[in-house]
Amino acid sequence: MDSNHQSNYKLSKTEKKLLRKQIKARHTLLRHEGIETVSYATQSLIVANGGLGNQVSRNQLLPVLEKCGLVDALLMPPNKPYSCVRYKTVEESKKAYDTLNGKEIVDDLGQKIILYLNFVEKAQWKELGLQALPPGLKVIEEIISSEDEKMLLESVNWTEDTENQNFQKSLKHRRVKHFGYEFHYENNNVDKDKPLPGGLPDICESILEKWLKEGFIKHKPNQLTINQYEPGHGIPAHIDTHSAFEDEIISLSLGSEIVMDFKHPDGMTVPVMLPCRSLLVITGESRYLWTHGITPRKFDTVQASKGHKSGIITSDVEDLTLNKRGIRTSFTFRKVRQTPCNCSKYIIC
């Protein structure tokens, strides 16, 4: 459809429907996002429904846009159902407006989505600026080999006799096994007087000894919780009980990468990428003050640049895309505390 609405051309029924959808998208952008569209052609277009929040990835949308001309920038803000494309010329932008309005694409879940485009003078989003990892938190990439990962995953028998004390029936959203001590999710604690027989698996003992020797961890854990997460599942934001465990909590990610959110009591949230075969080490302030959790969803917003693996997911709207989750198994190790908590300086102890 031509962008010149002043024309005397009589619209067809399909074109009228498309125009109504465009106008609705325009009003929604203004009302909820404060983005004002214009009726004349510019280099920039807002692409309604073509956003990360609609499960549309950068790799999926960019080739569609590039068919209409040279794309100068594609801005995809996190969790929003729209994006902004800037072309090199107004002519290319106008071609995209005329060609792609009402175009149907398929998102990463296989669902059909229809794009609606409107011109804008410019689109700006408030960015969080450069963030740092929460104090006391570190992510160590490739801490084990793919061969060790395979052995660890194969060592977990999810089908064994349910009378085994290490076995716990599936929680609402995941399968769980405990070693050393059973972790109680209702209070994020353990019963120190009821250790489980057998201790930690032998394969874990040798890996932990290696990490201790190489200085990756400071304490040898005596409690292990193994969780298996299907895509779309997560864990509520929480802090592991101060009085239950020592300062250091470590978690090994196997099978698939994940984004974990760390939240400060003042409301600041830091999303952190945990690659496959990486070790998350939580100590100090990040252990005692920040909550950590995984949002239940099937896609994570991640950096598009290939060099970015672990660490903070920045708010750079020119470098964000979607990453489909796979089945992730986490080995979370803790050392049960035998003495009272000594972290009185933290307000939520």
From TrEMBL:
From the UniProt record, give one GO term of the biological process aspect.
Answer: demethylation
The broad enzyme category this protein falls into is transferase
Ranges of residues in domain Fe2OG dioxygenase: 220-337
Spell out the CDD domains in the cross-references: RRM_ALKBH8
The protein's Enzyme Commission number: 2.1.1.229
Indicate the secretion signal residues: none
Report quaternary structure and partners. Answer: Interacts with TRMT112.
Please report which protein family the annotation says this sequence is part of: Belongs to the alkB family.
Q: What is this protein called?
A: tRNA (carboxymethyluridine(34)-5-O)-methyltransferase ALKBH8
